[in-house]
Amino acid sequence: MGVLGAGAAFAQATSPAAAGGSSPLDAAGRFVDSVPGRLWLALAVLVLGGVLSYLVIAVNQRILEGAGVPDSIEGTAFERTARELGTSTVSIVARISGYFIFILAVLVALTVADVGYIAQFWRRVVLFLPRLFTAVLVLIVGVVVADKVELLVDNRLRGVKLPEVSILPLAAKWSVFYIAALVALGQLEVDTDALVVLLAAYVFALVLFSALAFRDLLASGAAGVYLLLDQPYGIGDRVRIGDTEGIVQEVDVFVTRVETDDSEYVVPNRRAFTEGIVRVRE
Amino acid sequence: MATPADLLSGLVADVDGVFLFSPTGSTYTDFAESDRSPVVVAADNDVGAERFVELPVEFDNVKDRIRFGVEGAMDQNFCEDGDTLACAAGVFSDGIDAVVRTTVSESIHSGIYDLFANSRADPSVIRDVFEVAIELGKKGQKGKPVGALFVVGDAGKVMNKSRPLSYNPFEKSHVHVGDPIVNVMLKEFSRLDGAFVISDSGKIVSAYRYLEPGAEGVDIPKGLGARHMAGGAITRDTNAVSIVLSESDGLVRAFKGGSLVLELDPEEY
Where are chain A's structural domains? Predict the structure, then answer.
């Protein structure tokens, strides 16, 4: 509508100039006068928005690259897909923030230009837009972090050549993605109560089962911290823990390795505490 | 008329196996399609080879590298006594630039692979100690050559077969070889007399140890000093490996089971 009006004004402005033969400067002055100031302001806002969004894209890209984001997300599925499409995660995120600012500028321009009859609609869009932007950003970050977590867990478990173990990286990936999706949906004010309950149940089961499964490991670890800090016995000492007697070969957080001439015992550190340590002197 | 290609065809004529040392992915894929897949010897199995021998140290000496690879392959039954092998390795550059024809025999069995793979200590710990010793040999202490003796693995027994010369600077500390600060630390402590004792998992248990092994039956070359004798002898009495940096000729030597297994010149690394 604004463009149409400007075009009409332009037609009006040029025809007398051609007919009357007055100076082009004069015609331009009349043209500027004939367009309402409000429209010029809207145009300026639009141009400013364009420049600003371009700057934001460039600066964001620099910041993300400077923070080492491209290196740390190297190899994730999202990054690979982005590369196949001839772009990269960093530029996608930078562009989204830039486009967000540009769209905002367009809306401000429309408001300034006083495009009345769609104002009601636009007002709701303006309120909704930041939330949509955050949701998209959270989703992208979630997908990338989930991919990265999968890669990290997978790398860590590479030494374990057990087919069943491959479920762990997948579980870690989907857990992270689930939480990201939950946050994104929350931003869009979708009712996520049921999903939150599901998450709580999942976390509770995880905590309960790991507490049960790692009970001995945790007790040994706590004892191991004391043994490492205080060193009641060290490598080379002859000790007796329970009915195990031998020379200490190694003390780590979870176990103590005690060796005799023909056998090597791996004693959980928990036992050093519950059964006591005897240092044997020759 | 002989063409340059004939040079190679003579070398690779009726070999029983192909060994690729640190090949690139494409080199491996080219070979992997043949009926008998090649043995890859490299630091990491980047190419996803079926038959793979891990190289803990980039041996600068190609002979040592090939020995290590062949011993490792024999250990995993990739090849056997009497096989003729074509080994493609990099001599002057990192990429493959040479093909060596060799026959698997007892003479190639120097125990290098055994030193890393079948010792009590982790291969990575032995590698780290080698690196420390090589760096110490290269730089010395304030420009002067230093000697050092590291006894790696079976630390409990080694501690019982040695006595302290003075207070142990590593008491109640949790320093492992391979930690970033350790090189500097060991360089400082190498001024002290005596041996460093390092556990199976790489923890530095003690410095300043005077080793007291029985020296009978130790087979080390004549002319090496007391440090080497002590280092060699302790590996006979215990299951440890010792890595000795000579003060006089600057070489790094490794002993296992009372005999000299490996000799490296730090200047070449």
Answer: 129-213, 217-279
Distance CA B132, CA B183 (A): 6
CATH class of the domain at B119-268: alpha beta
Residue in chain A nearest B156 by alpha carbon: A236
CATH (residue range A129-213)? 1.10.287
Tell if the CB–CB gap between B205 and A236 is shorter than 8 Å: yes
| pTM of this structure | 0.66
Mean pLDDT, rounded, for B95-104: 87
* Residue A9: per-residue pLDDT: 46
Q: B108 to chain A, minimum CA–CA distance in Å?
A: 30
CATH code assigned to B4-114 = 3.40.1380.20
Residues in chain B within 8 Å Cβ distance of A247: 156-157, 160
Task: Report the range of poorest mean pLDDT among A20-24, A34-38, B96-100, B196-200.
Answer: A20-24
Residue written as token pair 């009915």: A243
Average pLDDT over residues B172-191: 82
Residue type, A63: I
Phi, psi of A240 (to 5 degrees): -125, 120
At CB < 8 A and 24+ separation, what contacts does B257-261 make?
A: B258/B217, B258/B218, B258/B219, B258/B220, B258/B232, B258/B233, B259/B111, B259/B218, B259/B219, B259/B220, B259/B232, B260/B219, B260/B220, B260/B221, B260/B232, B261/B110, B261/B111, B261/B112, B261/B114, B261/B115
